[in-house]
């Protein structure tokens, strides 16, 4: 597949994050209360499911955004912050209606904070397949949603890297374990580490 070839050339973290988010999307799409979103329910929720897969979308971002690998880890941190803050006010699940817009906006915010040189919003809008006004609006909504909390400490960065590394090991086990075999570890749900805890306490990535 084309996206598999593009992911092979991308930083390893891109493929791992894609796989992790695909698990979350699959779980949330299958939830009993999952329904088509109302047009104005959230700026991040599309009225129809995009045709492009999460894996292909991440491959496209990695190909054209030109950002450092660390940006994808920071984008993961930002997504978790947004979802935990939104959970206190209103639900926003990472599903097939919202994952693409959340991804392009989180990566945009991470690139602007992490990298010395980055493309502008108009470029990211083209990469993400949305209009410039929509990209600008999503960025502002995202920043307010995370409370402009963009700093990521080395400890927090390390925690989230550990989660992605665990996901990578799970993916490698799945590809090397014969079908039908039992007893091996299996990732039940995607999670990330709470920044409020020093211990490796996991919390759901999606509400």
Find the CATH topology.
Cyclin A, domain 1
Can you tell me the CATH architecture? Answer: Orthogonal Bundle
What's the structural domain tally? 1
> How many β-strand runs?
2
Q: How many angstroms does the end-to-end distance come to?
A: 32 Å
Gross geometry:
globular
Largest sheet strand order: 1-2
Largest sheet: 2 strands, antiparallel
Low-confidence stretches: 179-207
Question: Number of DSSP helices?
Answer: 8
> What is the fourth-level CATH superfamily?
Cyclin-like
Share of helix, binned: 55-70%
Describe the protein in words.
By secondary structure, the protein is mostly helical. It has one domain: Cyclin-like (Cyclin A, domain 1, Orthogonal Bundle). Strands 1-2 form a two-stranded antiparallel ribbon. α3 runs antiparallel to α6 and α4 packs across α5. The protein starts with a helix and ends with a strand. The C terminus is likely disordered.
